[in-house]
Amino acid sequence: MEKSTEQEDILNLLRSVKSGKLTPEQVIEKLRAEPFSDLDYAKVDYHRSLRQGMCETIYGKNKTPEQIAGILSDMRKNGARNVIVTRISQTTADFIAEQNIPMDYHVIPQLGIALPGEKRQQVGNIVIVSAGTSDMAVCEEAALTAEILGNKVTRIYDVGVAGLHRLLARLDVIIEARVIIAVAGMEGALPSVVGGIASCPIIAVPTSVGYGANFEGLSALLTMLNSCAVGISVVNIDNGFGAGVVASRINRMKGV
Questions:
Q1: What is the per-residue pLDDT across 96-140, written as a single tens digit (0 to 9) for each?
Q2: Which InterPro entries did the record assign (predicted)?
Q3: Using CA atoms, how far apart are residues 149 and 42, in angstroms rounded to an integer?
Q4: Does domain 123-251 fall into CATH 3.30.1490.20?
Q5: Cα separations (Å) of 121 from 9, 25, 30, 161, 231?
C-alpha cells in the first residue's frame, strides 16, 4: 500500500534518528508542530494528542452540521477516536448519525462523543458539585469530558447554599476528593463554601443561571474571583469543558 506524505515524513525522521543526524528529543519537537489537514473551513490538528494528551475537540456552536460531519469524517480517516463535540443540538446530532458517523449524544449538556473507541481506565477521584439542578448542563459537560479523559467522576448535584445541610451530608465524599469542580449560578457562593472545607484543588465554574442582576453569569464569576477561600481557580462562564480538562490534568499528575 502506498504510504501517505505524513507517514513518509515520520519514517524519514525515524531514519534520521537511526543514522544519528537527529536525537529522539529533536524528533519529538518536530512532531509537536505538525501535521494538520486543511479543509478550507477548518484546519484539523492531528498532533494535538502528542502535545496535550487528547485529540482535538470540536466546538460545535456556530458550525453547520455539514462542517462538523466533514471534520469528523476527516478525523475518522486519520484514526481519531473518542472525539468530544460540544454545544450541538439534537438536530445536528441526528444529521451526523445520518452520515454513518457513530456518536453517543448526551441531551442535557448538548455534547457528543464521536467515533467511540476503547475507553481509558478511570483513575483518581474528581468530584463535581453543583448549586442547583439548573446548573446540570454545565456539570455534565465537565463530567463527560473528565470521564472520556480517563478519570473517575463522582456527581453531587443540587447542594447549593440555600440548603447547606445537603452539602454537609456528603462531607465524606468531598474530603476524599482529589479535585473538585464546583458549579454555581445566581450569586456563585458555592465554591467559597467548598473551599472552606476541602483541602484539594477546586475549580470554580460560574454559570449563566440566574435572574437579571446575575448578568448572565457575571455576578457569579466576580464572586468566585473574589473568594476569600484558598485553593480556588476559576474558569469562564459556562465552561464545563475547560473545567473538565483542567481537573483531568490535575487528577492524572504523577505523584498526586
A1: 999 999 999 999 999 999 999 888 888 999 999 999 999 999 999
A2: P2CMN_synthase_LarB, PurE_dom
A3: 24
A4: no
A5: 32, 28, 30, 34, 28
